[in-house]
Give the backbone structure.
Amino acid sequence: MAPPRPPPNPAGEQQPQLHGVVIITLPPADQPSKGKTVTAFAYTNDPPPPRSPPDPVMGYPAATEARRRPRRALSTRRVATAALVLGALAVAAYYCFYSDVAVQFLGMEQEEEQRNETRSFLLPLYPKARQGRALREFGDVKLAARRVDDGGRKARNRMEVAKAATARTNSTALLPIKGNVFPDGQYYTSIFIGNPPRPYFLDVDTGSDLTWIQCDAPCTNFAKGPHPLYKPAKEKIVPPRDLLCQELQGNQNYCETCKQCDYEIEYADQSSSMGVLARDDMHMIATNGGREKLDFVFGCAYDQQGQLLSSPAKTDGILGLSSAAISFPSQLASHGIIANVFGHCITREQGGGGYMFLGDDYVPRWGVTWTSIRSGPDNLYHTQAHHVKYGDQQLRRPEQAGSTVQVIFDSGSSYTYLPNEIYENLVAAIKYASPGFVQDTSDRTLPLCWKADFPVRYLEDVKQFFEPLNLHFGKKWLFMSKTFTISPEDYLIISDKGNVCLGLLNGTEINHGSTIIVGDVSLRGKLVVYDNQRKQIGWADSDCTKPQSQKGFPFFL
């Protein structure tokens, strides 16, 4: 006998449904330290249960069948809803406790409490045209070294300079960038100095302490730049007793009887700049229309040697962006205009360009890989890589696997330089994996150029034959590697002859045989952040076309 059918639902009655809800509560804007809460629960629209039967008569219990309720089987809808709730909790937990930047999010909000408001500025990077010359003749390397003998000591006036910072509003400057690796070889932006303000094109250089521009002075020895020479008034010359002069020169070079602060800088490519320090107004315009005027100290250059002299002068000087107290971002921070954080984003597009920001408004709140900056006497952005791999192949000897290799991020270098052993192993690995490419010694674009056995016009034609170069900077949360990936399009150049040229060079050519110098060719397609407050450097993939202010909580974006 077949079992009886269940009774039909009354008219209009709906089947019970299960609903899942996730509630995330953010702290008040004026009290971010209270933290946030994540709550999840489920409910149904079941009708209320029937009333309990009346109490038993004469103390006898009610029938067992009346007290038992049938157990409801798990339905597909219930399982799916539960999975949805658990998934939402997992995503919330990831952003709250796992992401590098999200972990710091509350701390950032607490720091922002101390500011009255935040404004933003933008600066462009412009192209520097160079024509008719091989890249190897003008590939700049702007790792600066002061030509002064301070016995290894530097004037430690950073704390005193920092005390000069007032309680002014922190802002963020955003500057467009122009330029490209090939054929220009450099990137630059513009700043405005003097009264009335005049524009100057400066090479963006994280490997230099001092910002300097060409000056109208006796013994001038350089090619004329795109703008009229800066002519300082006598009262604009910085005296030797100035704290920034002592920071630049070192205590042992202090001259009490001198009337000016002299400087001389030599770069890794053997070029140099010589002059005196000057002080004048620098003008900046915020993205919200606000204006800032900074009492800015910079180099007034009257003599240049090497590539600074011989190359076509499409810029007026260097924009120093190192961690030194006299650098451009450090001076802005010491005056309370910005947080001591800046970054740049250089596009891979053929036309080049990108942008640079000063301050922390444009630092992404998530998705950035961070590694620590090592302090050093040269104020450069040093880090340490644990492994260097071409694809999956280790480029260092097995006995060196436990050691580290020093890495410097230098936007003043056109190309990336590798230690001799890593470079030779890389070239051998490329030749073994790509036998169809034959070296063309007649192509002088770069030290190593290959001719393919098929026509080559674009990187897309050949990049599939090459592997990425990976720099590993240890682990993140015990199992995720902090990796800076240099893809083939970030180290290959197509020459005018249609050859494939390697933009990774041997560091022994510039006397850096044991250090990796990451230059412009490998910085493209990435947002790179230099955080001098937290002593860390970070990067994230980006097309570098449109800067975006980062102020929201990532879970909702």
